[in-house]
Write a structure and sequence with these properties.
Length: about 375
């Protein structure tokens, strides 16, 4: 005999389930096949982080604004908003291989274990951790992707498994996506501080994410907000991504490989793809619908350094950034922490030509954006 809740209309079931903590939602999905289907459609907003240490997770959540110190006790799902889940998964360090221990004298190893148990564990390499993070991410997206409207993922990078899960399960329904791969507070084990200074390496995984090449039937095409932090997506891949998401109005890039003149000139209508030159509306910039564009900690925005910008005439005072003029709907533009761009140059260009209500000048990160330092002894 079926339970009474399964007799209700699906819309009402989903509304009821949206108020459950995540643990209770999982338990409900295990009660029957019908309830399993209902619980997979319930998640509309999910923030997922996969880390090796709890302290890494806590700091990343705080820096991203996913939580506050006062809310840390409620991260598990209590007192949450409806349909909004923040989940942090900790993958413990691997046990040291037996072959590593065989060469140690038994008495010495026992003494070592008694004095410092942590030495019997070892961190995953960066590549191993990325594979593990994307494996977990793919499992979650494959199960809940059909109902997700808003998704944010914290990890070290995107690989083919995670990209395929996104491209195949969240094609049209996903409106908000944030991929956050920048975690400068993580600097132990095989991860060096310099890891976070540059974008992640380029990868063909982004082609799967876009649904190009061998997977034309996949790819995201309903995005309205896209946030990429330390992403290895290339300018061409980023161009294809924006093309496939015509409703995109918010684009926030931080330490992103794709934030280069090749992409930006196309976005602002300064240059076009060959197949676009014969279109009737080719005088309109592809990025004309964007309301928010952030290019933070992106150091290749300009093709060449700007010199003697004070002497540029007013009509050309945005030399090198002419593409901004084509973004006619823009309400917020940020160059925060982007080197090689003089703040006075941006300020003058906006005052004379752009007239954008909010422009964040390229000062170095201070205040709220300053990295959180952690005593290595706590790690």
């Amino acid at each position: 005999m079926s339970d009474k809740i399964s007799l209700l209309p699906l819309e009402l079931i989903l509304h009821i389930l949206s108020y459950l903590p995540f643990e209770s939602l999982l338990a409900f999905g295990e009660t029957s096949r019908a309830n399993y289907e209902s619980h997979t459609l319930c998640l509309e907003c999910l923030r997922l982080g996969v880390f090796e240490k709890r302290i890494h997770s806590v700091i990343s959540l705080l820096q991203a604004g996913w939580t506050t110190p006062d809310q840390m006790a409620q991260i598990s799902g209590h007192n949450k908003q409806a349909n909004d889940y923040t989940i942090s998964i900790i993958q413990p360090a691997m046990s040291r291989l037996a072959s590593d221990l065989d060469s140690k004298p038994l008495l010495k190893m026992k003494s070592l274990k008694r004095r410092c148990p942590a030495l019997l564990e070892k961190s995953r390499t960066l590549e191993q951790m990325i594979r593990e993070q994307n494996r977990v991410f793919a499992q979650v997206v494959n199960r809940y992707g059909r109902g997700l409207r808003k998704l944010e993922f914290m990890a070290y990078d995107l690989d083919s498994e995670g990209a395929m899960a996104l491209a195949s399960k969240c094609q049209n329904i996903l409106h908000h996506l944030a991929l956050r791969f920048e975690h400068p507070h993580i600097r132990d084990g095989p991860i060096r501080p310099s890891t976070w200074l540059n974008p992640a390496p380029g990868s063909t995984a982004w082609n799967m994410f876009l649904g190009i090449g061998r997977y034309p039937q996949y790819g995201l095409c309903g995005l309205q907000t896209l946030i990429l932090e330390r992403a290895g997506i290339t300018p061409w891949q980023l161009t294809m991504l924006v093309k496939k998401n015509p409703k995109l109005s918010v684009l926030k890039l931080r330490t992103c490989r794709g934030a280069q003149p090749e992409f930006l000139n196309w976005l602002g209508g300064v240059s076009y793809e060959p197949e676009e030159r014969d279109m009737d509306d080719n005088s309109l910039a592809p990025g004309r619908k964007l309301k928010v564009l952030w290019l933070e900690n992106c150091h290749q925005v300009l093709a060449h350094p700007i010199e003697d910008y004070e002497h540029l005439p007013n009509e050309f005072c945005d030399f090198g950034l002419e593409w901004v003029r084509g973004l006619t709907s823009l309400r917020s533009l940020s160059f925060s922490e982007s080197m090689n761009i003089p703040p006075e140059y941006i300020d003058r260009a906006n005052s004379v030509l752009w007239k954008i209500p909010e422009v964040i000048l390229p000062y170095s990160g201070q205040g709220d954006k300053a990295p959180i330092e952690v005593d290595p002894g706590l790690l």
